[in-house]
Every structure is written in structure tokens, then in C-alpha cells.
Write a structure and sequence with these properties.
This protein is α/β, with parallel strands linked by helices. It has 3 domains: 69 residues; 243 residues, 3-Layer(aba) Sandwich (Aspartate Aminotransferase, domain 2); 111 residues, Aspartate Aminotransferase, domain 1 (Alpha-Beta Complex), CATH 3.90.1150. The protein is built from 14 helices and 11 strands. The strands form 2 sheets. The protein has a 7-stranded mixed sheet with strand order 1-7-6-5-4-2-3, with helices on both faces. A hairpin with a 2-residue loop joins β10 and β11. α4 runs antiparallel to α12 and α6 packs across α11. The protein starts with a helix and ends with a helix. The mean pLDDT is 96.
């Protein structure tokens, strides 16, 4: 055995303690250190010929790379829709690596059974019924891709084509209808061979809404003359967290043949709050659902879940035909349900989070985030240099400069806020206007954090 490797094995408890201490310092300091790292990264170093051991690697990381890690797990990182990492989910993530289970199937481990239990818990959390089965994937993009792959197989079923064998070309042109699709939908259509150009945008409701006009959707479906289609509904749009009327869309299936996929990457968490649960009424009617867990569930990155009513079609798409794996059973192994053969135990951090904090704990996070988003929105409304572009419907605040909101000036505002070390925001365009988004999803964010973000915005916007 290599001497460095042998020494690490002999000193493993001390090495893990050192890593624990560094992690604890990082978590404890995430609320106060600069939210974004703006300095240039160090130049690339050559590959070591002789290893320094785990302790040496830890010291080298602390010196060269740790100073450039953002405080994305902290309470004022409002870019994208990024949750932090709750203490329990961090514990589960560390144990995921320690146990290093292969989650492709049930052989020799209870890990797959734990994932099935966790998926069932999540289904109940979001108001889905017994008909929906699911599996863990890497993120919302892969969750949407899996859902649309099953939808593609459903189209083949309706048209008498075995798409998993004949390929997407056998379907002919596919119609995919949506009002405000996330960019990952186009990416998924490209990966699946359906094509980005097959995504047809349906008119939205008037008044600056991002929700689809159901009457316009019905007209588009009627124009297909009975040809089956895919409808991608949105439960929580990127810019303004708008929600399609899921019940009304699902009711259209009584007259038109389509697969209903709901992208509820973070909007599904509205189901946890009685005040906001009506926004996702009808989610249970979806044929497939996307939910991202490293957003509002605050588990580490690389965790999402997909649900579908048609497990049989999912197996038809993803089954792994190999003698050493065996054929799919009535309860198929996960190797037959997702694109991955090699799967880590992503469910364990989620299981820890749900066990530790339950429905009530996560409801409190959702409701507190919504409260703080509205507080920020109200504060922005009082700043003369800024203006809101849309109502704060849930946890995202979309705003811009009151005067001359050019892309350059809005980007300068974002840079100034990041340079202050107080917050990090990401850009967007809403209604043709360059803007910024502040997305609240971190479990640690409080009123004090919101006031600090407002102060940074006031200073930066006044200086432009």
C-alpha cells in the first residue's frame, strides 16, 4: 500500500476530526464572511507526483482554495434559488460518503429501501397520492429530463411506436406546449432528440403574469386535431414564482390527449404552508412531476426527485438490459428507472432532514422565507433608485433600477452588492427589462439579514 494511503488509514479518526473542524468553522462563519468570492482564482498547479496525504491535502485546500469558496450556504446568498445545508442533512451527506452504498439495486444493502421510504415521504409532503412513484436524480434538469423521457414513451404508446427501440424520429414532429418553461426544458428536449424547436410557447395571462392562459392552451390543443402532445405546466416560475392553474389544465385532458408534466422545482414546497398550498392544487393530477431538493429542502447539492404515474413506461425507457443485473421486477431496481447505473445514496441527507425537522420544521422555513421576501419587496418599493417589476408572490423578488435599467447598469448594481460582501443576486430579464432576482430559500435567513441586504441595495443603487 502507498505509504501516504497507509498512514491515512491508520490516522483516519484524526483526519476526519480535522475535516470536521474545518467544516464547522466554514458553517459558523458563513453568515459573516463575504457572500461572494470576487478575487481571481489561483493559477493551476501541476499534478503531484508524490502525494502529501490527507492532512497535507487538507492544508493545501485551506491555503489555496477555501478562501475562494462563496457563502452560498449562508443566509444572504439570494442568487439562483439556492438553499443552504441544514445540520441534519449535512450529517446525512457525510454518512452517505462514509457508507458509500451502490444504490442501483437491492442486492446486499438496505439503501434502496431507504430511498423508497424517502420518496414516499416526499410524495406525501407535496400532496401526491399512491399512484405516484419516484426516484432520486441529480437536480431539476435531470428530473425534467426523466419526466419528459417518460412522456416521449407515452407519445409512442399513443401512436403505436416503441420509442425506446425505434428512436424519437419514429414519432414524427412532437408538440410540446408551455407558457413560461424553464431553460432546462429546452435542454431536456435537446437531449431526448425531440428538439428545442418543438417547444411551443403558449400565450400568458395578461397583466404581467407568467402563468399560461388556459383558454389559449386549449385553443392550441384543439389545433392539433387529436394528435397527442406534451404539456409542461409550471408551479413556480423563475422570475416571479407564478403558478399555472394545474386543475384547469388537468381538466383539459377530458377532451384532448396530452401528457401533463409539472415543473415544480421549488414551487412544490408551497404545499407545506396552508396559506400557499392552493397554488399547487391539482399537482396530484400530473403524469410526471419535477421537484428540486437542494433548493427549498436545504439539502446539499446534487439532490432532486422525479415522480410519475407510469412506472411501466419509465422502465421501458431506462431498463438496463444485462444478465448480471437481471430483468425489472414488479418493484424495479433503481438502475431500471433513471439514466444512471451508478447512483450514490442521495436519499440519506433528505431522510435525515425529514426525520430531524419533519413537516412542521420545513413549513417554518418556507413561511419565514416568504415573509422575508415580502419584507425585501416592501423595502425596495421605498427606495427611490429601485422599482419592483412584479408582485412578490412567494419567495422571489424581481426588481430593477428606477431609471435607465440597461443591462450594463443592472449588472453594475449586482457587482456593487456582491463587492460589499453583504449579498449575492443573479440577473434576469423580465418583460424585456434587465433586472435582478433575490430568491429566499435558506434556512438561516432572518429579518436582520433582509435589512442588511436592503442597506446594501440602497447604498449601491444610490451610487449609480
Amino acid at each position: 500500500m502507498d505509504p501516504a494511503l497507509a498512514d491515512d488509514l491508520a490516522r483516519l479518526p484524526e483526519l476526519l476530526q480535522s475535516a470536521r473542524d474545518m467544516a464547522a468553522r466554514a458553517v459558523a462563519g458563513s453568515a459573516e464572511r463575504p457572500v461572494a468570492a470576487l478575487a481571481p482564482a489561483p493559477s493551476r498547479a501541476p499534478l503531484p507526483e508524490r502525494g502529501e496525504g490527507g492532512t497535507g491535502a487538507l492544508a493545501r485546500f485551506a491555503e489555496r482554495w477555501a478562501p475562494g469558496m462563496s457563502a452560498s450556504a449562508g443566509p444572504r446568498y439570494l442568487g439562483f434559488v439556492t438553499g443552504g445545508v441544514t445540520p441534519a442533512s449535512l450529517t446525512g451527506d457525510w454518512l452517505t460518503s462514509a457508507y458509500d452504498q451502490n444504490l442501483s439495486g437491492d442486492t446486499g444493502s438496505w439503501g434502496a429501501a431507504l430511498e423508497r421510504e424517502t420518496v414516499e415521504w416526499l410524495a406525501r409532503l407535496f400532496g401526491l397520492g399512491e399512484a405516484h412513484g419516484g426516484a432520486f436524480v441529480t437536480g431539476a434538469t435531470m428530473s425534467n429530463t426523466v419526466g419528459l423521457a417518460i412522456a416521449r414513451e407515452w407519445l409512442g404508446e399513443r401512436l403505436g411506436v416503441d420509442v425506446s427501440r425505434a428512436g424519437s424520429a419514429a414519432l414524427g414532429p412532437v408538440e410540446v406546449l408551455s407558457g413560461s418553461p424553464h431553460s432546462s426544458i429546452g435542454k431536456a428536449l435537446s437531449v431526448l432528440g425531440i428538439g428545442r424547436d418543438r417547444l411551443r410557447r403558449v400565450p400568458l395571462l395578461p397583466g404581467g403574469r407568467e402563468a399560461v392562459d388556459v383558454a389559449a392552451l386549449e385553443a392550441a390543443l384543439a389545433g392539433l386535431d387529436g394528435r397527442p402532445a406534451i404539456v409542461v405546466a409550471n408551479a413556480g416560475t423563475v422570475n416571479t414564482v407564478d403558478f399555472d392553474d394545474l386543475r384547469a389544465i388537468a381538466a383539459l385532458r377530458e377532451r384532448y390527449g396530452f401528457w401533463l408534466h409539472v415543473d415544480a422545482a421549488f414551487g412544490a414546497f408551497a404545499a407545506l404552508s396552508p396559506a400557499h398550498a392552493p397554488l399547487v392544487a391539482g399537482l396530484d393530477a400530473a403524469d410526471s412531476v419535477c421537484v428540486d431538493l437542494h433548493k427549498w429542502l436545504n439539502v446539499p447539492y446534487d439532490a432532486a426527485v422525479q415522480f410519475t404515474r407510469r412506472r411501466d413506461l419509465q422502465v421501458a425507457v431506462f431498463h438496463n438490459d444485462s444478465p448480471y443485473l437481471g430483468p425489472p421486477t414488479e418493484t424495479p431496481d433503481f438502475v431500471h428507472l433513471t439514466p444512471e447505473n451508478s447512483r450514490r445514496m442521495r436519499a440519506l441527507p433528505v431522510w435525515f432532514a425529514l426525520t430531524a425537522y419533519g413537516r412542521d420544521g420545513h413549513r417554518e422555513i418556507v413561511e419565514r422565507n416568504v415573509t422575508e421576501a415580502r419584507r425585501l419587496g416592501s423595502g425596495i418599493g421605498e427606495l427611490p433608485a429601485l422599482r419592483l417589476l412584479a408582485p412578490v408572490r412567494l419567495n422571489v423578488v424581481c426588481f430593477t433600477l428606477a431609471e435607465k435599467p440597461t443591462q450594463e447598469r443592472v449588472a453594475a448594481l449586482a457587482r456593487a452588492v456582491a463587492a460589499s460582501g453583504e449579498a449575492f443576486l443573479t440577473p434576469t430579464v423580465y418583460g424585456g427589462v434587465p433586472a435582478l432576482r433575490a430568491a429566499f430559500s435558506n434556512w438561516r435567513t432572518t429579518e436582520d439579514d433582509t435589512r442588511r441586504v436592503l442597506a446594501a441595495l440602497a447604498t449601491a443603487s444610490a451610487a449609480l
